Recover the amino acids of this structure.
């Protein structure tokens, strides 16, 4: 029996990001997300390079087919994650400037070859400085061996502190 998640409100409403376009922009512009997982009441945290697919409202990542992360996901595929756009320390203000997106979702693994191709291209477009050249190098036979995870985003929220007060 699943417990219903506790609902919290953002204490600093003036920093809340409610605009879905801005939340999606942050997910598209960041190079990695950090996700929290749990298994047998033990937490685990991992950072992953990713690609955000706005149409499917999901994040793609690639990883090995075995290991600690896979064991945690197989035990409990619910995750909490964060994408952080770090804008640095505000010199002389004793403050830090940032925009972050927090999300809750479920991880599944992609088996369909067309979706695998789309996922890899999504990641390359987000991460590589010359995506077209990299995409041209992709080999369909190699794609069969790549393990692609998809985080289906179920809830999303954001917070920012971008200007000095």
């Amino acid at each position: 029996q699943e417990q219903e998640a506790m609902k919290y409100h953002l204490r600093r409403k003036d920093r809340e990001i409610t605009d879905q376009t801005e939340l999606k922009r942050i997910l598209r512009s960041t190079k990695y997300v950090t996700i929290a997982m749990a298994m047998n009441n033990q937490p685990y945290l991992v950072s992953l390079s990713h690609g955000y697919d706005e149409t499917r409202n999901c994040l793609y990542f690639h990883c090995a087919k075995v290991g600690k992360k896979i064991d945690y996901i197989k035990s409990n595929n619910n995750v909490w994650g964060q994408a952080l756009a770090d804008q640095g320390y505000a010199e002389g203000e004793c403050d830090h400037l940032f925009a972050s997106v927090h999300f809750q979702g479920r991880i599944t693994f992609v088996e369909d070859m067309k979706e695998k191709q789309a996922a890899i291209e999504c990641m390359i477009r987000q991460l590589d400085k010359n995506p077209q050249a990299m995409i041209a190098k992709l080999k369909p036979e190699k794609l069969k061996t790549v393990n692609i995870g998809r985080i289906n985003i179920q809830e999303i929220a954001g917070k920012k502190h971008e200007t000095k007060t």
